Amino acid sequence: MRTSARVFWTGFALHFKNLSASPFMMMTAAVWPLVYATLAFLMFRATDQAPSLLYAALGAAVMGIWSTTATSAGGAIQQQRWWGVLELLVAAPTRLILVLAPVTVAISGIGVYSIVSTLLWGRLLFGVPIQIEHLLLFAVSIPVAVLSIGLLGLVLASTFVLYRSASSLSQALEYPIWTITGMLIPLSLLPGWIGPIAWVLAPTWGMEAVRNSALGGDVLKPLLLCIGLSLAYTVLSMLLLHHFERLARERATLSLT
Amino acid sequence: MIEAIDLRRTYRTTTGVVRRKPLEVEAVRGISFSVEQGELFGLLGPNGAGKTTTIKMLITLLLPTSGQAKVLGHDVVEDAREIRRRIGYVFGGDRGLYERLSAYDNLRYFAELYGVSGKAQRLRIDEVLELVGLKGREGERVEGFSRGMRQRLHIARGILHDPEVVFLDEPTIGVDPVGARELRETIGDLIAAGKTVLLTTHYMFEADALCDRIAVIAKGQIVGEGTPEQLKDNVTGGRVTEIEVFGVDDPTVARLRGIHGVTSVLVEDRDQAQLLVVQTSGEREVTAPLLAELGELEVGRVSSREPTLEDAYVSLVTAE
Question: Is the pLDDT of residue B125 over 90?
Answer without folding.
Answer: yes
